[in-house]
Design goal:
This protein is an alpha/beta fold. Helix content is about 40%, strand content about 10%. It is globular, with a radius of gyration of 21 Å.
Length: about 400
């Protein structure tokens, strides 16, 4: 999550030019219909491409109850926006839930905001998983279990309902309207995402890999050990001087983009042809979660940086203004912005640094900006079509899933 001191010209354009400028308040997206999952009654068609084209809404088939449990395949997992292996603990929890459903009289049902577990099966599973969580002595194990549980429930609850690329209901898929763009080859975004934001329809971090691809904008889920190890392995290879976190760290000096990069980059580094050397990549961490969760996420990054380098993680502050997405999702204050808007602000501000001017980072920012407008239009259209009010409401849920 990100804070800002002033309003940039580009973000002002997002607000000014949007077709939905009349929407002044924020709302949560419409809840999905209640879905019953009977041991994988909805599963990915194995004959379909796991990474569909921009116009592909995803292919699903109905199957009779199989003789063995249906788990999450690697193909299905990676279609949600990652090239990582399926996390071991996520796979274990999914299989445990499906086995429990086959042994229980209650069926696995999902519905409501966030596609949470519902009904008698939820009651049974919550008791079992809370007991398991309390039995864990180590805080690290508890975090891993919590995150894996969140991801497992979202994977099962979204099967056959959400498009795997844009995370919107299939009937509202926006993929055909998103125009891909190449990010400068020496730059990489890391979307450090809270598990409760995974598969969230109004999440904007997903737009970065929709626009730039998963190798230029990489998903790393907080508390998923395999993801965090992949990210930190890349950071250690690049070195501390090539890693920055876009976060307002109040306990350490925070530099602006101009202070961090003006006069500090060599011409050869900026303008050499494409290089596959990962030690020459500039890594930017975007913390993708609610403001209430972001402090713990940043603290985890800071502790790991201290363990690896013995120093704080370098932080950058932006002057990005209010995002258009304030209209459809609550923020604690109007000077804080969404993940995509932070990426737009970074690219725009880098473009203003003389050494970066020829890289056309402003055009790459514009591509993300356009995708934000597409998402805003899709989410707004869905709510209006369903006859739901557009009001700014804050909700708090204590559900384990």
């Amino acid at each position: 999550m990100f804070t800002s001191a002033a309003t940039s010209f580009r973000v002002f354009n997002i607000l000014k030019c949007s077709k939905y400028t009349f929407l002044r308040t924020t709302t949560y997206m419409a809840a999905p219909p209640s879905t019953t999952v009977c041991s994988g009654a909805l599963s990915i068609d194995s004959s379909a491409d796991a990474s569909p084209s921009s116009g592909d809404h995803g292919r699903y088939i109905n199957e009779a109850r199989p003789t063995s449990p249906i788990t999450i395949s690697l193909q299905e997992w990676q279609a949600w926006g990652t090239d990582s292996p399926l996390p071991t603990q996520v796979a274990e929890i999914v299989e445990e839930m499906i086995v429990s459903e086959t042994e229980s009289d209650a069926q696995m049902k999902f519905g409501g905001l966030g596609g949470k577990l519902k009904g008698d099966f939820k009651t049974q599973e919550d008791k079992k998983h809370r007991a398991k969580y309390r039995a864990l002595d180590d805080s690290e194990q508890k975090l891993h279990f919590f995150s894996a549980r969140q991801i497992a429930c979202r994977l099962l609850g979204s099967r056959g309902y959400l498009c795997q690329k844009c995370w919107l209901p299939l009937e509202d898929c926006m993929c055909s309207s998103v125009v891909p763009c190449s990010l400068w080859h020496r730059m990489r975004f890391w979307l450090y995402m809270h598990p409760k934001d995974f598969l969230r329809q109004n999440n904007t971090g997903k737009l970065l890999w929709q626009v730039f691809g998963i190798n230029a904008a990489t998903l790393c889920i907080y508390g998923i050990a395999e993801h965090e190890e992949i990210m930190w392995k890349a950071f250690m290879h690049s070195g501390r001087n090539n890693v920055w976190c876009l976060y307002p760290n109040k306990n350490a000096p925070t530099k602006s983009v101009e202070d961090s990069f003006n006069g500090n980059m060599s011409t050869s580094f900026l303008h050499e042809p494409h290089s596959t050397n990962s030690s020459e990549i500039m890594n930017f961490i975007l913390i993708d979660g609610t403001w209430s969760n972001s402090a713990a996420m940043f603290r985890r990054l800071k502790e790991r940086a201290d363990l690896v380098w013995g120093e704080d993680l370098p932080c950058i502050s932006l002057t990005t203004g209010v995002s258009a997405m304030h209209k459809l999702r609550p923020q604690p204050s109007w000077d804080r912005t969404c993940t995509a808007a932070a990426a737009i602000g970074l690219l725009d501000e880098l473009h203003l640094v003389s050494e970066f001017e020829s890289l056309e980072l402003n055009k790459q920012a514009e591509a993300v900006e356009n995708s934000v407008d597409v998402l805003l239009a899709s989410l707004t259209g869905r709510r209006l079509r369903m006859g739901r009010s557009i009001t700014r409401r804050l909700r708090h849920h204590d559900d384990i899933c």
